Amino acid sequence: MLLRDPSLAEAGIRKIRWAKRYMPVLNELERVFEAERPFKGRVVTVAVHLEAKTACLCLALKAGGAEVHATGTNPLSTQDDVAAGLASMGVDVNAMYGCTPEEYTDQLTRALKCRPHIFLDDGGDIVELLHGPCAQYGDRVVGATEETTTGVTRLHARHAAGLLKYPVMAANDAKMKHLFDNRYGTGQSTVAAIMHATNLQMTGKTVVVAGYGWCGRGVASRAAGLGAHVIVTEIDPVKAIEAVMDGYRVMTMEQASPLGDFFITVTGNRDVITKPHFDLMKDGAVLCNAGHFDIEVDVKALRETAVETIDQRPDIVGYAQGDGRVLNVLAEGRLVNLAAGQGHPVEIMDMTFAVQALGLRYMLENGPGMAPGVYDLPGEIDDQIARFKLGAMGLGIDELTEAQRKYMASY
Amino acid sequence: MLLRDPSLAEAGIRKIRWAKRYMPVLNELERVFEAERPFKGRVVTVAVHLEAKTACLCLALKAGGAEVHATGTNPLSTQDDVAAGLASMGVDVNAMYGCTPEEYTDQLTRALKCRPHIFLDDGGDIVELLHGPCAQYGDRVVGATEETTTGVTRLHARHAAGLLKYPVMAANDAKMKHLFDNRYGTGQSTVAAIMHATNLQMTGKTVVVAGYGWCGRGVASRAAGLGAHVIVTEIDPVKAIEAVMDGYRVMTMEQASPLGDFFITVTGNRDVITKPHFDLMKDGAVLCNAGHFDIEVDVKALRETAVETIDQRPDIVGYAQGDGRVLNVLAEGRLVNLAAGQGHPVEIMDMTFAVQALGLRYMLENGPGMAPGVYDLPGEIDDQIARFKLGAMGLGIDELTEAQRKYMASY
Amino acid sequence: MLLRDPSLAEAGIRKIRWAKRYMPVLNELERVFEAERPFKGRVVTVAVHLEAKTACLCLALKAGGAEVHATGTNPLSTQDDVAAGLASMGVDVNAMYGCTPEEYTDQLTRALKCRPHIFLDDGGDIVELLHGPCAQYGDRVVGATEETTTGVTRLHARHAAGLLKYPVMAANDAKMKHLFDNRYGTGQSTVAAIMHATNLQMTGKTVVVAGYGWCGRGVASRAAGLGAHVIVTEIDPVKAIEAVMDGYRVMTMEQASPLGDFFITVTGNRDVITKPHFDLMKDGAVLCNAGHFDIEVDVKALRETAVETIDQRPDIVGYAQGDGRVLNVLAEGRLVNLAAGQGHPVEIMDMTFAVQALGLRYMLENGPGMAPGVYDLPGEIDDQIARFKLGAMGLGIDELTEAQRKYMASY
Amino acid sequence: MLLRDPSLAEAGIRKIRWAKRYMPVLNELERVFEAERPFKGRVVTVAVHLEAKTACLCLALKAGGAEVHATGTNPLSTQDDVAAGLASMGVDVNAMYGCTPEEYTDQLTRALKCRPHIFLDDGGDIVELLHGPCAQYGDRVVGATEETTTGVTRLHARHAAGLLKYPVMAANDAKMKHLFDNRYGTGQSTVAAIMHATNLQMTGKTVVVAGYGWCGRGVASRAAGLGAHVIVTEIDPVKAIEAVMDGYRVMTMEQASPLGDFFITVTGNRDVITKPHFDLMKDGAVLCNAGHFDIEVDVKALRETAVETIDQRPDIVGYAQGDGRVLNVLAEGRLVNLAAGQGHPVEIMDMTFAVQALGLRYMLENGPGMAPGVYDLPGEIDDQIARFKLGAMGLGIDELTEAQRKYMASY
Q1: Mind giving me the DSSP string for B88-143?
Q2: Could you give the ipTM of this predicted complex?
């Protein structure tokens, strides 16, 4: 157990309870898990953005009989009160807000010493440790799940290089995850965080969104929904045309640099906004990142060339340039929706964590028979979660008749 | 050659010229084909909705050296003036508007007597003939392409049954096709046709869209863009939740029946709106179909139970019910955007037909070495078309740096 | 009576019947008029875009006892079949599609020889005749209504000059008229007409809307709803900022000229797009007007400088420039939604013509006691129409409690 | 001077500086004021939501020579750090967050003891005091401005009763104020506050907006822009139909009660959501108010009938009902965007406060010659502010030519 301040538990529990009220699918699974105890006697390591919603996932696993060891996945996304609250509810938690890179690695390592049977990774840090310095703790692993696009990309690269030791389910690629979490979750939480952190207007402003994957689509659509003029930059020509057809202007980042009031990177890549772009930007431009790592905006270069660093508001640092312009960076270029906001909305994570809960159960039950590799969630689990969610919303849909089923299979 | 009226050629040529002005990608391919003559000496059968845009595709193939035999794919979508115009420009055309089912089959058969090397199918009628009554004309076939979701579904069913004789490229599944044609093409052309045919208001009206595939998304988004209140019906629970998140109400067709002012089916299935639904609808409700076949709305049942049939306006028949309500059906339940409208917008078909032109070329060159089955367009051809299109729009996008490329492949 | 072809009556009657089905408010008023006969023995001149919806207005007045004399208000908006149909139903009609300016004036004059007690004007032509060459037919006039923004502007100018002889109600300024007809009516009908006439894609295209009044807002919103990138030009700085906040780019027409794929003028002014703008436009640009008169786009200048005039499609003329570019004008720069489309949607005109019907009744009853001038529709008539419409849509709204009413009047 | 904690000044100054960076119009006016000193030697009382943006207005007035006395206008909207910061910059501030009603009145009274020449009111509390218990401090008043719809409604009521002593400018009614502040300001800040306070999803949720005035339109449009399904309730039938045409469902509050996930009142009236509605709501429903006073949602009734009161999260209280449902109220039913959020975006207030600054100057210069009553801002001041704003955004618009000007004045 490694907490910033155990005395924050009560506040954390209150946050967890609030989230739980709006997670009907996970609550339904918790009831099932309590009855069936699928994780009984098994050890699970969970690396997540440690806040109220992820706490609910940990509790559902625990209800299913698991011994849960939780840790963070980003030094700025851990909420110390939730960490304390979760710990008080019987989960082993090792996570602190604002820790150093060394402390961060230490926390992950602590969460692995339990020698997990399965684990949940978020971006690939756990996989990296288990294939390197923490290899000795991975001897009981039968499978895992991965939460993010970034992590899945890395898993594929690692597997292509012949270096992946376990079967890992790409939870991110489940329809009930990426179609909603990446798109609507990142979309809402990113614009909400920017508005809250800056108190600036989005209506009528020019917002440059780098990357038109699922996350970028969500962010662009929510910014436009708030009245912003959206410019999209891409490296994929097909996605670029989709962005044009969706009503956005498309251009290179160099062309967009002098036009943007806000810049939001969601590429999963690195060096997306760099020194040459900074030089073209307007005074007062606001930069932030909603992709996994803090290397999409080259904050380091900005810091080094600034003549002054201004502590503007919580989570906003202004970098004064030699020519008088000030460029403002939110949350040091880390995930803005988590580091300067509330993270994804509760109901979105309800679906995501249903994927994770059932994905972990699937890997526990089927992992022993699977070769190392990257796997998709079986379609029927996606459908099952979707039906739970429709039920929770009180919505009915049509069922295929036998004649229709036959027709769709005819030629 | 089988035309309704060859004297309409001049009007048809004018329509073809207009379309050609707005098809920069196909024009670019035509220049390439003229230089390289990839279809030289080869016979191509093309089954399409015969209007100005498809005529341009035929002409591009002809410019590449092909002997082109064109026919229609729907008795109500052929435009007789375009058919005449295209014939006058050196293509063998067999198609007439409003022909009987028997005449329709005869026209397709005529277009196959040339014993094609490759063919373009649209919904599967050509494939069906070549696997049945016209099998003898298929002896030279090395491959084909299929234009629609419906046709691809049928190809998979046929192949699963071990009954597909050729390799067929699912042109429909190319990103540059279905992401734009099915979504934005069907979307715009469907609402445009409904507005033109009815002169009714969409703003503030309730529009029920059956099916939330690519076509349904397009239709829903355009109807909402015109101010309509959209209700989506689905049989897939995941798509149903996507529709909710996209801002639409979701319910069963039975629940939607008493609410809708307009009903639009885009499912690719049959019996989507039937007698029990008709009985619940409001007086004056308007029904139409934008899916491939005319069996999504059960017009037959409506006709049989009507106490009076009213010829309301061109392309609108009202069916008076015993209780006084009149339900109006557009274009007899056939593809409303083609039968009562102008078909897909020109620029959308420019991309679709670039997929077809390069797809046919690919099959001609590679088909002989491919086993029977359903194939995807190689990704680099999608990208090539996208880059042509970006160029035509004057838009630039970013290129990955070497460092970024490496980063994306790292783990 | 002056018709192009009385034998078209049956087709016209069919169109009128279709419209009538979707005009519940006017039908309700017709029932009231039939019972109360408020126009009994009175002569009414009605100058309108003569198509199915306006025919229904004429019939409602007739049902109220009026002797109705109808004429057109634009040489390209009269539908000859509707004119014939309406005539066959007992209205004196003087209107022909495609007439010359001299014929047009003659038709209006014929419709005034009846010496009307009240009249409905649309753009001010009737007022002009009655204050000039037709003054002798105006001796019985007690009042009038005016349908358009343009007409109301002219009335104010005429009244300011002391030259207005009658009290005229600015029907256009009624909330139930301009908030819906100008905005949603012009919006939908304009984009529908453009799509139908051109078969071009609006999605992803740049649409330049000149003027951000009620009509301009409607057009911009519908174009954006179809996926277009909208640019607004304005001369009013406040409206310009509203356009920015509504998500549109704002610039001068000179700056917009090289960017636009479509140009739509809705200013009510003249010379909005002129020679210097034409010179900057892209090849293939499409120009049209949805404002009252055909002088917003300087088609005359375009015609004079063209090296060739191309008859592209019905309602589209291409003007080839010396440098090879072709600029396409829809409907000769006349009201594109009427001249190349179906006019406003039926249900919108239902509300507009309810304003006109009750406005004419009000003027007949109150005009004798009113000084010459421009008057607003009394608010309670607006509310009455709105309540009829809500009833027709089956919608309920809240009522103020006595306590709320008091609170709103307190300080 | 009456502050919660003067030591918070530095944090407050930082907030003020941040806001100032994004208020180009007010900065421009401040430069003009510094040069012309229009308020030299005059005493101004300013009652506002005391946060960073309003502080900038006070500073601009001060730069113009005014002796400024500031106070709050809502016990929950004052930010103590900004109050301290503003005080440290030379303004007399009397305002504290979370004060009692008695303390609140005391603070307003203190801000009036200076015997102001002009004052800025926000909702009418200052006017009420100066016409009642503080009448003796109003002897030097020559005029005032009022910020809100609510305040203007009350001024009209007071004037109608013959009880208004001064000329007051309805700053709220200036185009550059209500078209932007009420619509886009309230819209963005309300949804931002709700998302931040609750961490709940708006996408796909049902949001009930009570009132479709400028504020309601803004809130509805932003909620829909975030993917919510919006229901509007109204008491005005014309506005109700506008809401339908804008794509929202319209019904009574009673009908909406069981459907809503979020309820937002923006009516300016009282008792909009009451006990009978609470009884129909879903478990977990969230209620809040963005209208001026905390009597739109009857929180008192909710409190009295609750079996338990749950402190859910900061700014959220849950009221458990006897049947197990919990209804959650944000910010005790006070202005949610101020009490639980950041208030209006900076750039919106830049325009609003330009109206106030020029309005106060106008009243100072012209008030002595004006009778008591409610006045509009002269249109040319609106235009001047709009042109400043366009300039700050770098946007150009067209100018009328002489020929166009003449045409618009012709008949």
Answers
A1: HTT-EEE--TT--HHHHHHHHHHHHTT--SEEEESSSHHHHHHTTTTGGGGTT--E
A2: 0.94
